[in-house]
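[Q] Does anyone have a clean structure-token version of this?
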Amino acid sequence: MDCFWPRAVLYEMNVRQLTPEGTLRAAAAKLPFLKDLGVDAVWLMPIYPIGEAGRKGSLGSYYSIRDYCAVNPEMGTMADFDAFVAEAHRLGLKVLLDWVANHTARDARWIDEAPASWYERDASGEPAVPWDWSDTAKLNYADRDVWRAQGDAMEFWITQHAVDGFRCDMAMLVPVDFWNEVSRRLRRTKPDLFMLAEAEERNLFEEGAFDACYAWEMHHLMNDVARQRVRVTALRDYIYADRGRYPDSAMRLAFTSNHDENSWNGSEFARLGDAREIMAVFTFVVPRGLPLIYTGQEIGYDHSFAFFDRDPIPSYASNAFTEFYRRLTALRHGNPALAAGERGGAMVEIRNNAEDCLMTFVRETGGNRVVAVMNLSPYAIHADYYTGIYAGMYTDAMTGEPFGLRGRVEEDMAPWSYRILTR
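[A] Here you go.
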């Protein structure tokens, strides 16, 4: 793994909702904005043709795929996709495709063109429906030809359309041996391939199939801390427990929103309330973290997108939320201590007088140091802690102003307030 991904900031692009047009061509016009924001890689939600059988809503689910090797005509053409990738690469951005290996649409090409054994079957002989996803058909990974066909389709996008990697939907529903095999195959063609799993099972990393996985458990704890269902001690315990779960190189996707959370559980404004800002900061400083920005967050759009219909952002312009995320991406890029995986600094806690509310910690590597002081609670706290060897002059990452960190600190901290210091 080169140094690009441990220092990266990801952006999940919901093409359907990002622009009034809902097309790849219109989305490509947003790439300079994202580059200026500090984004390093764009993960596109599925851009493939969507099934019509059992279609949900007016446009259907991105995740009900008719053809793995084509572009949804509602979004444009393959030439539009290639132009999108070319523009991203011109700007220095990587492009990830969303890969849905567990199932297809119920009227996918493979239903008619492939052997019946490519699908799991119900008692009536029809392709089985996974979970309650009634617009999809479950692929049968007992048939090795499915493995080959999936690998062929993924390789198509790498070799012919220059994609840089894949975000793999519900990766735990597919045999890990498949991921190990297909990853080895694809890396022979593209050694710098990036693989992100929407799962957090430990075996996803045993043979190097994935570079990163979701931090779902941490995300749910962040929501719970924001609502005071648990205290920050639960989040601290998670970080320590997570240290030994994965190889040192493994990265964890850290987020306050994504397409699932936004559409089904509410925007970060609804779920996190007044904790929204500090939790976003937390995703940029937490150990192992690979931070994600979801469509609309970069302009503070407080809305739950319709999942199966057009529901575009009504207006799009730089504002205070944009500047907030620009500060966070600069923090990430300017401080090697915050890198994910083994390249970043471990978390060293500074003990404080209110550890059920406050997190005070340091991450440090190669002469770079970041100090985080975070009141992860809805209470005003009189903080009291000793910084010891970490006392000295710093820069406040969010204001750019110099800040002297005393040996002993006593200060009143407002609810959900924080200070991130760098040197």
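[Q] Thanks! Anything notable?
[A] The radius of gyration is 22 Å.
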